[in-house]
Amino acid sequence: MTKSARPLAFLLSFAAALVAYLAPLHAADKDYVDAGTAQMLPTGQRITPTAATDALFQQLDPELAGYPAFRAGMAVTTVASHDGKTLLILTSGFNSLADKAGKRDAAASNEYVFVFDISARSPRKLQVVPVPNTDSGLAFAPDDRHFYVSGGVDDNLHVFAKAHDRWDEDGAPIALGHKHGLGIIMKPSAAGLDVSADGRKIVIADRQNDAITIVDPVARKTIGELDLRPGKNDPAEHGVAGGEYPDWVRIKGSDTAYVSSERDREVVQVDIAGVARVVARVAIQGVPNRMVLNADQSLLYVAADDSDLVSVIDTKTGLLAETIPVAAPPGIFGNPQRFKGVAPNSLAISPDGGTLYVTDGGDNALSIVRLGGTAPHYVAGLVPTGWYPNSVSAVGDMIYVVNGRSDPGPNPQGCYHPNPDKQKTAACDARNRYILQLSQAGFLSFPAPTAQDLGTLTNTVAANNGFKLARDPADEKLMGELQRRIKHVIYIVKENRTYDQVLGDLDRGNGDPSLALFGKSVTPNEHALARGFVTLDNFMDAGQVSGNGWPWSTDARETDVGVKTIPMQYADRGMSYDVEGTNRNINVAIATTAERRVADPISPDDPDLLPGTGDVAAPDSTSGDVGRGHLWDAALAAGLTVRNYGYYCDLARYELKHPNFIPLDRDPFKSKTVVAYSSDVALKDVTDPYFRSFDVKYPDFWREREWAREFAGYVAHKNLPSLSLVRFMEDHTGDFAHAIDGVNTPEAQVADDDYALGLLVEAVSKSPYRDSTLIVAIEDDAQDGPDHVDPQRSIAFLAGPYLKHGAVVSTRYSTVNILRTIEGVLGIEPLSLNDAYQRPMSDIFDLKQKTWSFTATPSPALLATQLPIPRKKADGGAQHFAFAHDAHYWAARTRGYDWSQEDKIDAAKFNRVLWVGLEGAKPYPISRDGRDLRSARPKAD
Fold first, then answer.
1. Beta carbons of 539 and 831 less than 8 angstroms apart
2. Is residue 196 within 8 Å of 251, Cβ to Cβ?
3. What phi and psi values does residue 596 have, to the nearest 5 degrees?
4. Half-sphere exposure (CA, 13 Å, Cβ side) for 153?
5. pLDDT by residue (tens digit) across 58-75?
6. Burial of 697 (0-12, 13-18, 19+ CB in 10 A)
7. Strand partners, 277
8. From the centroid of its chain, how far is CA 800?
9. Within 10 A of 669 (CB to CB), how many other CB atoms are there?
10. What are the structural domains of the chain?
11. d(CA 338, CA 289)
12. DSSP of 470-492, one letter per residue?
């Protein structure tokens, strides 16, 4: 294979993109790898997975009959046999496929254990073992003749035995006996596990039950369970947090287990010699995930997200012996503010005990820590990996790393066939091109690098993440000048559209008109914003779906908890949507059981259920404030004022069947009906209680009216907040049977969202804040549509003073650059390593362009609704809009969908419903190949 120096956006086919992704990218003769030899990610980072000498990087092919092109995603765990000859790789992610009839193919929708022979330098695949559902647990028995896999949502333990050089399941899985998980409508999940030295006990972390289960693999039965929460062991400690979200297990000998508790940031020591009991709890800085014991089991090394540390516990004393920073070698990049985001998430120790290897999911690297001598220990160097490494094993002088993701790249066989003919539609469905199906795992193997190579590799990682990028004086000068002039930012996050879906028909930029489902007639305001200010035709959403799109949009990173659980949740393999403030569907911004039950009677009456306000997936701030690493936290810390309209709210009471259902009041302020309850502690006092959050039954028009009511008050009192967070979400579309005011078709809903955005921009443009306010609008992700360049290419709009007018800016920007720009304008500290070391969007500004104006135009699609739209000529005089279908059609084709939260539906299926319903018999374009179409624009859009 040869190097590819072509940017991903211009590869001629998806196959070519895959070849480029897998091609060796040697960097031994350079201090760093430049953009020509690295693959760009939608996050703004780059990866060079084969930069190490003699590195081999391969995908994981489950060899599915009928799905020859499918490759597994989200590899999470590696385990080497005790004899060092076999490596197991476990996947736990989406890995769900549709059959030829367009329905979920249960036989092919599995997770997998890949079995590799590692007795030679190059790993050789021996077997692929399917498992219906998994979480993260995988371990060999001491005799290497059995291995064990935790069954995730199936709440069981799989036992595999080797006979005649083949692994087969040894009997039925062992049931763990949990009927449900803890929380509201939760399922259990068997997570990390370990085997005792004598092979007679397996301890499994019951992630969603805050417990461990002990199994006797010989007798094939459970022999004990221990709830890890303090209040369940001592009534005097009811309401004390502890032991929640157990993730990983390590057993010392055969009588002591260590369990990492992610929410409560502790390692729980459990005596398992007899009846299991908690012996001690060791507080950990950051979120502890995976752990490893050294050879004599005197030290337990604990990887901790959010702190970018490995904590070392002395197993004899139970005390912390050391904390090791693992971001980079001292001095490799200037980080005096100690920005976080490396996300250490697994560990391995070399056979000679002299080196600790740590996977850093956040910067796509492996940290190498030399353990010789006395503490403190530091990182000696970094090795590039694939996108988001999850696990590492070390055997001899070989290192094995698996990562969870790949960039989807162009998609020439997109699964959105327009022809209503059932046979053709079914054939399209079978292509399985949903974004989480295209995100594929990787398996990297390489010999331990020499000291000389390690220096080069470390510089490569630093370059890939921008750690060595000096701040551009011109950028700093521009941001300083903008900070003096702009005092307010309105940050709008919308839902799920690609660039081509909306702006494909724009008269400029790299759009494909054939993919414009919601073109100018539906989105006249977004078209006007793109034309009047800046067309960003190479903007990437960092997140793939809402579950990681929202963390990227508000935090400039993901936490490891979200990375691991979101693909499982989207594939209906258990897990809850824990990335917007609720945990297990409980609003943890409310601290006590009594208060929760007043707010939501469905909440269980259990004082030990997630007590306090800890949020398992929330990032820490730069200064280490637990769970306070959001954009608004940084603004408040900087002494700025914040107002929240719809971000991070408890959505439970928007469900029609909820006992405390909040009515769809068009003017809740007038009736004094509280419609928004924050799910984030810091937002509780700054959230507009009359602004309805995510609810596709409710038009954005009324959301904008509520925002405008408050805005008028701020104008009158001259006290507009520094940062306004606004959630317009109706471009998500859905719940057509219950949507009010006739906003009940995809066209009407997207038009409603477009008009709300236009009205907000118009209001600012005609106010005294016109000269001091920057408006920024993005999509949280772009999963719900086709795009000829990349499934994560999306729309982004800016309006206000000092922006260029009528410009096309094709610089590759991402969500991270948006946040970096907002921070620069408001004087806010960066949130993480990602935004700290990426550039602001300097080339969209022009300090000479102070004057601006905007007038909102309703799409003619809105004139058919009951919204109070001005009966003026819309969009050049068109008074009638040709809807593809009525609400009954859309409701019938989405019957049974769960619209209660973004992405609880089958998004891939809904995408197909949209394309067929909107485009009818229109031939589907097959040239989605990343071509640059800027020179082939229509004369008018």
1. no
2. yes
3. -65, -40
4. 18
5. 999 999 998 998 999 999
6. buried
7. 271
8. 30
9. 17
10. 8-406+441-464 (2.130.10.10), 491-581+617-888 (3.40.720.10)
11. 21
12. PPPHHHHHHHHHHHHH--EEEEE
What is the number of H-type helices and E-type strands within the chain? 18, 42
Residues of the chain with pLDDT below 50 are 1-36, 411-425, 428, 876-878, 923-928
User: 549-583 in b/e burial notation, b at 16+ Cβ within 10 A?
Assistant: bbbbbbbbbbbbbbbbbbbbbbbbbbbbbbbbbbb
d(CA 491, CA 511): 25
In the chain, what's the furthest Cα-to-Cα distance? 82
Q: State how far the Cα of 90 lies from the Cα of 773, in Å rounded to an integer.
A: 50
Here the tokens at position 501 are 């879906």
Alpha-carbon distance of 555 to 89, in angstroms, equals: 31
Cite the beta strand spans of 496-581 per DSSP E: 534-536, 539-540
- Tell the residue number behind the tokens 């409980």, with chain if given: 586
Separation between Cα atoms, residue 557 and residue 620, nearest integer Å: 11
What is the DSSP code string of 601-622? Answer: TTS---TTSS-SS--TTPPPPT
**CA dist., res. 51 & res. 543, Å (int):** 26
CA distance 544 to 550: 10
- Residue with the two structure tokens 């979120």: 287
What is the pairing mode between strands 355-360 and 46-47?
Answer: unpaired
The 10s digit of each residue's pLDDT in 143-191 is: 999 999 999 999 999 999 999 999 999 999 999 999 999 999 999 999 9
Q: Residue 98 has what DSSP assignment?
A: B
Closest CA to 245 of 560, 474, 508, 620: 560
Q: How many angstroms separate the CA atoms of 685 and 688, rounded?
A: 9
Burial 246-279 (b: 16+ CB within 10 A, else e): bbbbbbbeeebbbbbbbbbbbbbbbebeeebebe
Find where tokens 């698996």 sit. Answer: 402
18 sits in which H/E element: helix 14-22
Cβ–Cβ < 8 Å for 192, 136: yes
- Please report, as a single letter, which amino acid is at residue 818: I
Place of tokens 């004139």: 863
Residue 632: half-sphere exposure toward Cβ, Cα within 13 Å: 25
